[in-house]
Amino acid sequence: MLDTSIFTFIGGLVAFVGLSLLVCLIIIRALSNIAKRSQLVRGSILDVQRGVLVIWLALVVVWILQALGFTSLFSSVTLSGVVGIGITLALQSTLGNLLNGMWLLGDNVLRLGDNIKIMGLEGTIIKLSLRSTWLKTSDGSIVVMSNSTLYNGPFTNFTAKERLAKQFEDRQK
After folding, report:
1. Would you tell me which of 24, 99, 135, 171 could form a disulfide with 143, CB atoms 3.0–4.6 Å apart?
2. Coil, strand or helix at 2
3. How far is CA 160 from the centre of its chain?
4. What CATH number belongs to 108-172?
5. Domain boundaries, the chain
6. Which candidate, 74, 51, 68, places its Cα nearest to that of 131?
7. pLDDT tens figures, 46-80
8. In 3-state terms, the chain is what percent helix, strand and coil (to 5)?
9. Cα gap 2→140, rounded to integer Å
10. Strands, sheet with 142-146, edge to edge from the N-terminal-most edge strand
11. Residue 69 burial by CB count (10 A; 0-12/13-18/19+): exposed, middle or buried?
């Protein structure tokens, strides 16, 4: 007869992976809805989805290795901390642009086609991504600026007066 503890372990493992995947998919759906509402470029939406899935997969692998006894919690936390610091330092400006892009899109401040003015530049937003925003000026030039520049502003959005005023009124109630 097989030991029931093996079946219990496998059942717990499957339950953990399934439940954590469900949470991961809910997070991906919420982020995708925010991105679609903000008219974010399709490639950027896929990048966010893949990034969340990679993080989920890494966490599941670490948990399985711990459950099987191949690694301890201390070594997993230490290794993930060192890797996290290395990645953060290497990608500091890129991560800043990504976070600022998510905040801009999440606040619904910018959309494709909005006319804005920032640092003496005035133009129409022709591309929104998580890292940068593209403006087309009146003379046809394309200006690419980081989302950190936009987020740190100030900028004027001429097109979104009514949308932003309504959003502000809704928050005041």
Report:
1. 135
2. coil
3. 23
4. 2.30.30.60
5. 4-90, 108-172
6. 51
7. 777 787 788 888 888 878 787 777 877 777 778 77
8. 65, 15, 20
9. 73
10. 142-146, 132-137, 121-128, 115-118, 155-157
11. exposed
